[in-house]
Amino acid sequence: MDNIRIAEKFNHMAKMLEFKGENQFKTRAYTNAARTIKGLDEELQVIHKEGSIEDIPGIGKILESKIVEMLETGTFEAYEKTMDEIPAGIIEIMNIPGIGPKTARLFYEKLGVQTVDELSRAAREHRIRRLPRMGEKQEEKILRSIARQKEDKNHGRHPYVLAKEIATEIVDFLDLCPDIEKVAIAGSLRRKQDTVGDIDLIAISKEPEKAISYFTGMEKVEEVLESGTAKAAIIYPGNFHVDLRIVSRDSYGSMLQHFTGSKEHNIHLRKLAISKGYSLNEYGLTDESTGNLTKFSSEEDLYENLGLEYLPPELREDRGEVEAALRGKLPQLIERKDIKGDLHVHSTWSDGANTIEEIVDAAILRGYEYIAITDHSHSTGVANGLSDKRLLEHINAIDKLNEKYDGIRILSGTECDIRADGKLDYSNNLLEQLDIVIVAVHAGLDQDRKKMTKRIVSALENEHVDILAHPTGRKFGKRPAYDVDIEKVIATAKDNDKVLEINSSPWRLDLDDINAKRAKERGVMLAINTDTHAIDHLDNIEFGINMARRAWVEPDDVLNTKDLKQLCSKLGIPK
Ligand SMILES: [Zn+2]
Ligand SMILES: [Zn+2]
């Protein structure tokens, strides 16, 4: 058991004890210990072997014995006992953002609420507003949180970037195995979905059992869930479930295709095969009349045999790609080499780590024709946002730098806050002096749908605005999207000729693939930006491109694939 999971169990224990109304010192001991454990550099497992858990500040004898119990059994007795005493639904209620143990207890004692559904009903019937410390507002907030939690499809999933890191580590390791000829990533990770559930790997081997014991014997494996003759499943640190399937070389293409998915895409392919007199499964194509099985060593051959153009994995979601491939009309998906510059970057002028010069040098290194410096506006106080006066100095500094540099154009810009009432942080007079104006919402995120939509729409109606950054505000592991009518935002962008951003930060990735595809279909131009706060982030562009490819985006749909001249004319920048 790793430190993170031990800390989580302690946090969970604290919540349950608080719900039960146990004394504060007891609950606080658990939360403090959880915090300490999360901050440790070394795994408790190792510390335990050296016999020194008790030396960790804040962890006494009692907690030490519980940690040791967890290391040995995966749980501890007091925890299991407390779990049994509290209805399962209550634990779910305490997991709703904004509802702590005390509030859950209030609902339980006063209203007899024991499940999320009962809580939702109580809110709809206005029984909550009559409770102490509650009101109409709290009631609405609870309903919104429940709805969001249900919508939150990311539950139990990992951001792409983390899954990719783990998968790469494992693949590199398996590559060293003498009994493995080739290993590949399949599943949603290969389709570059924004979040990934399990990691699926396929390997070619003539010695499946040896290959599997190599895999399950990796040092970091926490648990072996399954270890068969052709398949194994393990848990890897960070709660990653990893599946490995061993295949022979002649059916590698069929297997890779099958386990790349998606499920819907595969169903569509099976129907297509049936219409041609075949049946399709992970082993190949079977001729229904003769019973002959054709295996495929490459995916390309498989698709070709079905009469299809080769389908990039990012498109395999049954969103029209099979029909398009049949007609030979697949989109020419955008690639990294199409990107000519980055239009959303922060410097030391606000909360970035690098000077404008350092950023420009990094942009030149990446072969960019232009780079926009878009520091924060003054509402974003924590981010050292620029006052009116400093913005003018910022523009001046960029003017001067442009004289110094050849072969790259630095655009003066802002990421201007859209205030709660929809007004912008700078006057039109100031915005007019900038090359590029990005607008974004950073505070007041729990406004209701109507207010939030109106707020963003009114910003997009400003004539000086060019781009809406991170249009839904989601951050993996932190918060879901804010409540906004994205259709309305897309329509407003279309009517006002504004650009919507695909934010390449691996923790954001909004617009997501579905909304970006919608925007593209409505004829709205997109920008793929990194929102760089340190020059290494410039390479996050890869993640934004993944999202764009999943959204069928072609180079022409994207503002920052234009060359400098086209960009200037699009943004109305005088030459
Ligand atoms: Zn922002
Ligand atoms: Zn930003």
From TrEMBL:
<keyword id="KW-0378">Hydrolase</keyword>
<dbReference type="Pfam" id="PF02811">
    <property type="entry name" value="PHP"/>
</dbReference>
<keyword id="KW-0488">Methylation</keyword>
<dbReference type="Pfam" id="PF14520">
    <property type="entry name" value="HHH_5"/>
</dbReference>
<keyword id="KW-0227">DNA damage</keyword>
<dbReference type="GO" id="GO:0008270">
    <property type="term" value="F:zinc ion binding"/>
</dbReference>
<dbReference type="InterPro" id="IPR029398">
    <property type="entry name" value="PolB_thumb"/>
</dbReference>
<dbReference type="GO" id="GO:0042578">
    <property type="term" value="F:phosphoric ester hydrolase activity"/>
</dbReference>
<dbReference type="Pfam" id="PF14716">
    <property type="entry name" value="HHH_8"/>
</dbReference>
<dbReference type="GO" id="GO:0005829">
    <property type="term" value="C:cytosol"/>
</dbReference>
<comment type="function">
    <text>Repair polymerase that plays a key role in base-excision repair. During this process, the damaged base is excised by specific DNA glycosylases, the DNA backbone is nicked at the abasic site by an apurinic/apyrimidic (AP) endonuclease, and POLB removes 5'-deoxyribose-phosphate from the preincised AP site acting as a 5'-deoxyribose-phosphate lyase (5'-dRP lyase); through its DNA polymerase activity, it adds one nucleotide to the 3' end of the arising single-nucleotide gap.</text>
</comment>
<dbReference type="InterPro" id="IPR043519">
    <property type="entry name" value="NT_sf"/>
</dbReference>
<dbReference type="InterPro" id="IPR002008">
    <property type="entry name" value="DNA_pol_X_beta-like"/>
</dbReference>
<protein>
    <recommendedName>
        <fullName>DNA polymerase beta</fullName>
        <ecNumber>2.7.7.7</ecNumber>
        <ecNumber>4.2.99.18</ecNumber>
    </recommendedName>
</protein>
<dbReference type="InterPro" id="IPR003583">
    <property type="entry name" value="Hlx-hairpin-Hlx_DNA-bd_motif"/>
</dbReference>
<feature type="domain" description="Helix-hairpin-helix DNA-binding motif class 1">
    <location>
        <begin position="126"/>
        <end position="145"/>
    </location>
</feature>
<keyword id="KW-0832">Ubl conjugation</keyword>
<dbReference type="InterPro" id="IPR037160">
    <property type="entry name" value="DNA_Pol_thumb_sf"/>
</dbReference>
<dbReference type="InterPro" id="IPR016195">
    <property type="entry name" value="Pol/histidinol_Pase-like"/>
</dbReference>
<dbReference type="Pfam" id="PF14791">
    <property type="entry name" value="DNA_pol_B_thumb"/>
</dbReference>
<keyword id="KW-0237">DNA synthesis</keyword>
<dbReference type="InterPro" id="IPR004013">
    <property type="entry name" value="PHP_dom"/>
</dbReference>
<dbReference type="InterPro" id="IPR010996">
    <property type="entry name" value="HHH_MUS81"/>
</dbReference>
<feature type="domain" description="DNA-directed DNA polymerase X">
    <location>
        <begin position="1"/>
        <end position="317"/>
    </location>
</feature>
<keyword id="KW-0239">DNA-directed DNA polymerase</keyword>
<dbReference type="GO" id="GO:0140078">
    <property type="term" value="F:class I DNA-(apurinic or apyrimidinic site) endonuclease activity"/>
</dbReference>
<dbReference type="InterPro" id="IPR050243">
    <property type="entry name" value="PHP_phosphatase"/>
</dbReference>
<dbReference type="InterPro" id="IPR047967">
    <property type="entry name" value="PolX_PHP"/>
</dbReference>
<dbReference type="InterPro" id="IPR022311">
    <property type="entry name" value="PolX-like"/>
</dbReference>
<dbReference type="InterPro" id="IPR027421">
    <property type="entry name" value="DNA_pol_lamdba_lyase_dom_sf"/>
</dbReference>
<keyword id="KW-0269">Exonuclease</keyword>
<dbReference type="InterPro" id="IPR003141">
    <property type="entry name" value="Pol/His_phosphatase_N"/>
</dbReference>
<keyword id="KW-0548">Nucleotidyltransferase</keyword>
<dbReference type="GO" id="GO:0004527">
    <property type="term" value="F:exonuclease activity"/>
</dbReference>
<feature type="domain" description="Helix-hairpin-helix DNA-binding motif class 1">
    <location>
        <begin position="51"/>
        <end position="70"/>
    </location>
</feature>
<keyword id="KW-0235">DNA replication</keyword>
<keyword id="KW-0915">Sodium</keyword>
<dbReference type="GO" id="GO:0006281">
    <property type="term" value="P:DNA repair"/>
</dbReference>
<keyword id="KW-0234">DNA repair</keyword>
<dbReference type="InterPro" id="IPR002054">
    <property type="entry name" value="DNA-dir_DNA_pol_X"/>
</dbReference>
<dbReference type="InterPro" id="IPR022312">
    <property type="entry name" value="DNA_pol_X"/>
</dbReference>
<feature type="domain" description="Polymerase/histidinol phosphatase N-terminal">
    <location>
        <begin position="341"/>
        <end position="420"/>
    </location>
</feature>
